[in-house]
Amino acid sequence: AVVSTQSTGKHIKSVLKYENKWSRWKNEGCPSLTKSAVDKMKQQQKGVRRTVRPMDFTSEKYDLGNTTLNDLWNICPDNLAACQDSNRNFTPETYKFFEECIEQLEPDSGVEKQYYLTNDTAFVWRSLRL
């Protein structure tokens, strides 16, 4: 029973890690999943040293150890209200998302079937996650 519990825990952690990546992708407005975007993100993370400092919860402003994070975190005094704000909807409209795909399916578009967006695995994955 211990072995199955450990493997279940590892599986749950991997699922949560995947969902975290999906949420981040969704919050960024569903950007294209190209190799160059991933490489840029990895390059930005290289050489970054992380130091852990205790947080001071008594002050109104928080120091998260990074000026960008500090500015982002301290924008709104009530972060929960900011997360629930109606302006935080990053999901594209369904028609706009599928507009190019619909145009490709038109007989007079001149796009060969092998080049349809519906054959692009990244496009299919994004469309299923809307």
Characterise this structure.
Helix content is 53%, strand content 0%. It contains six helices and no strands. It is elongated, with a radius of gyration of 21 Å. The chain starts with a helix and ends with a helix. The model has no long low-confidence stretch (mean pLDDT 78).
Tag the structure with descriptive keywords.
130 residues; mainly alpha; 6 helices; elongated
Uncertain ranges: none
Total DSSP E strands: 0
Q: First CA to last CA: what distance?
A: 38 Å
Radius of gyration, Cα only, in angstroms?
21 Å
Give me the oligomer status: single chain
State the helical fraction.
40-55%
- Main beta sheet, described? none
Class by SSE composition: mainly alpha
The mean pLDDT is 78
| H-E string | HHHHHH
What is the beta-strand fraction?
Answer: under 5%
Shape: elongated
Number of helices: 6
